[in-house]
Design brief:
The complex is a heterodimer.
Chain A lengths: L27 H23 L7 H24 L1 H35 L5 H5 L13 H32 L2 H14 L4 H15 L8 H26 L2 H9 L4 H28 L4 H6 L18 H10 L5 H33 L6
Helix pairs in contact in A: 1-2, 2-3, 3-13, 5-8, 5-10, 5-12, 7-8, 8-10, 9-10, 10-13, 12-13
Chain B lengths: L19 H36 L13 H37 L2 H16 L2 H27 L16 H25 L3 H9 L4 H30 L2 H6 L19 H8 L6 H34 L4
Helix pairs in contact in B: 1-10, 2-5, 2-7, 2-10, 3-5, 4-5, 5-7, 6-7, 7-10, 9-10
Classes of the chains: A mainly alpha, B mainly alpha.
């Protein structure tokens, strides 16, 4: 027997927008976040009033409030939207938090470097060396000169070698040699900086037969070992971007291959190559370990790359901190001022490199 | 003497004119390329040459009275691998999260700028990280560490007594993690962006949420990339010197405890701390430890790059 089911009474109420039903309205998570912060803030306030804590811990309040929000947001979404969208929201909040967490050390690092470096970031810091300075005063001019000379020398070595290698890999290289070089360049990017320093030391100690050798040029060689693979990599990427039509047009006009490379390919990619070189410089200019080993440290000015120990800025920071004298405050201040100088140099190099890439790169898109 | 009769000249294949400029230029590029192979070989050869005396060194030449070289270097290798492993444990999940955020969550217009910001971390010199670690991070985390020891002291990793300064191997691992974060993030981001758009759209069209799309399309595609990015990060962390040298007070021992004031040091930090005063065979011993570090990082990087390159062959993205 068939039972007759009565059809459900047609609802008169208009159906809400089907695209948004069952989904939390957009502002809800943000409201929840605010509520969570308020709750945790209130708990901290009560603790403060009860005398458990002696000061209001704003970082802790925001941290625990955010953790609470991740959980509350998941529960609310799960009860309203279901398990799958709730999981989606949960992961979204975790992923966004991961990014924010990574920003914290950067901000903290920049803040401490600036606030601790400013006290000694003055004229005498940039106009004098540490010769005959005990305690307060003194400057880092000898270290800045050393850094500029050694990094400049390393650039002079690395750019021709790196650029020619990149040209070989893009324009000429076929077969085993090219593949081997590509692979080993990649492996070479992973050489620890201290090993590069030890290599330069072992090399020059054996060649020049001086078992305790320390000089600036060795530091430049060590930095080149670190810098060449970076230059090769970035130049290679840039040369590959040059459209083949340009090369073919040049060949069709009867231009030899090497002139095509020099007059057509390189000018087209020069902005990108410059950017790559500057980024490579900014990477090696802060290297401490190799220079500590092969360039050594000194308190005096030394303009000669090929003779005697040479101070550099990263090593200056390290030695000021590691070998504190009396008063210790003066040494720590100098270390931070050196660190600030380094960070400023590195950030400027990065900034200029990005601007060069943006402004001077040829517009390839059509 | 007979002369062969001159044959009518066969039409030769057309060849480009050989110009001296071309020959010189291409030769110089080959030389530059080969120079890289030579340098790598030279690194190995000179390190080996300088470290031969160390392998036969007796206890007189070794710091800490180790009976032979291998007993001396053992704890250092342990410390190096242990610190790098801890750093990796912190950095990789974070890096995957950041890479996903930049590649799939952040608004398109912001994404590149956010990438630059993370890259800025890579530009900060390691000595500045060391200063920051010792003056800001160590005092900041010390209360957390003492709470951890109070609550979980029964667990061997968190065994007490807690360090009063916060200068422990876990603090070092955090600093190292921050330092390798940019490279791991950059590589993961590249890999995630290479995910075939059709896979992603297919997943979304079947009704997947964004997370399900990432789980079913992006992560399986990127898994080899994540592995090799982590190994490259591992290579960086193994060789990192100044942060470890500045934050840890040097000890040569094997200990798994994370929060005590005696911690194993790493090869690189040991070299940096002892090299300026070393003399005689002591120099050779330090160079020999450097050689071992070189071998370890070379192996790690070699494997990582091999995975990446094998991946490239069938990725279809290029």
């Amino acid at each position: 027997m068939s039972t007759i089911t009565t059809p459900p009474p047609a609802t008169k109420a208009p159906i809400a927008n089907t695209l948004t039903t069952g989904i939390l309205p957009k502002p809800v998570p943000w409201i929840l976040l605010g509520v969570c912060w308020l709750i945790v803030g209130a708990v901290f306030g009560i603790l403060l009033a009860a005398g458990v804590n002696d000061s209001f811990n704003i970082i802790g309040a925001i941290f625990f409030g955010t953790v609470l929000w991740v959980i509350v947001n998941y529960i609310v979404s799960r009860s309203y939207e279901g398990a799958r969208p709730a999981m989606n929201r949960f992961v979204t909040s975790l992923v966004s938090l991961a990014f924010l967490v990574a920003l914290l050390p950067l901000i903290s690092l920049l803040f401490t470097t600036i606030s601790n470096g400013i006290p000694r970031f003055d004229l005498s810091f940039f106009s004098g060396s540490m010769r005959n300075v005990v305690g307060e005063g003194g400057g880092a001019l000898h270290a800045i000169v050393g850094t500029l000379e050694i990094t400049g020398m390393a650039t002079l070595i690395s750019v021709p070698v790196g650029l020619l290698t990149a040209i070989y890999l893009v324009e000429y290289g076929r077969g085993h040699l090219a593949r081997g070089i590509t692979f080993l360049v990649d492996v070479m990017t992973g050489i620890p900086s201290i090993v590069a320093g030890l290599f330069a030391f072992a090399f020059f100690a054996l060649i020049l037969n001086q078992p305790g050798i320390r000089f600036g040029f060795g530091g430049a060689v060590a930095l080149s070992v670190l810098m060449i693979p970076v230059v090769v990599r970035s130049s290679e990427e840039m040369l590959k971007l040059v459209p083949n039509e340009l090369r073919e047009a040049s060949y069709a006009l009867g231009v030899p291959k090497w002139l095509t490379i020099v007059k057509v390919v390189l000018p087209t990619s020069i902005a990108g190559i410059t950017t790559g070189v500057m980024l490579a410089i900014s990477r090696v200019i802060g290297e401490t370990a190799p220079l500590l080993i092969i360039a050594g440290f000194t308190q005096s000015m030394n303009y000669n790359l090929f003779n005697e120990r040479m101070m550099t800025l990263p090593v200056f920071v390290y030695t000021q901190y590691a070998n504190q004298g009396i008063p210790a405050e003066a040494y720590i201040d100098r270390a931070w001022a050196g660190a600030l100088t380094l960070v400023v140099i590195v950030m400027l190099l990065n900034l200029i490199a990005r601007i060069v890439a943006k402004v001077f790169s040829p517009k390839l898109g059509r | 003497m007979t002369t062969a009769p001159a044959k009518p000249e066969a039409p030769r294949p057309i060849r480009a004119k050989q110009r001296p400029g071309d020959a010189i230029f291409s030769a110089s590029t080959v030389v530059a390329g080969s120079l890289i192979l030579v340098v790598l070989a030279a690194v190995a050869i000179f390190l080996v040459a300088q470290s031969i005396p160390a392998f036969t060194a007796g206890s007189d030449d070794l710091k800490g009275g180790a009976p032979n070289f291998w007993a001396y270097v053992g704890p250092l290798v342990f410390g190096t691998v242990w610190a790098a492993f801890l750093a990796l444990l912190i950095a990789v999940p974070l890096a995957i999260g950041i890479a996903l955020f930049i590649s799939h969550y952040a608004p398109r217009k912001l994404a590149q700028g956010l990438g630059y910001i993370i890259d800025l971390l890579a530009a900060v010199p390691s000595v500045v990280f060391g200063l920051w670690g010792i003056t800001v991070l160590a005092p900041f985390v010390q209360p957390f560490w003492s709470t951890l020891v109070d609550l979980f002291g029964w667990f061997p990793l968190f065994a007490g007594p807690v360090s009063g300064t916060g200068r422990t191997i876990l603090t070092v691992a955090i600093v190292l993690a921050v330092m390798i974060l940019p490279i791991v993030t950059a590589l993961c981001r590249e890999i995630f962006l290479q995910t075939p758009k059709l896979h992603e759209e297919a997943a979304l069209a079947l009704g997947a949420t964004r997370w399900e799309m990432i789980r079913t399309a992006v992560l399986p595609f990127g898994r080899p990339g994540i592995v090799s990015a982590s190994m490259l990060g591992l290579g960086r962390a193994l060789g990192e010197t100044m942060a470890v040298a500045m934050v840890l007070s040097p000890q040569v021992l094997i200990s798994f405890a994370l929060l005590q004031s005696t911690n194993p040091t790493t090869i690189a930090a040991n070299i940096a701390l002892n090299f300026p005063e070393a003399h005689g065979v002591g120099v050779n011993v330090l160079i020999a430890t450097g050689l071992i570090l070189f071998v370890i990082t070379f192996a790690v990087n070699f494997i990582a790059r091999a995975i990446v390159n094998r991946r490239k062959a069938f990725s279809g993205a290029n």
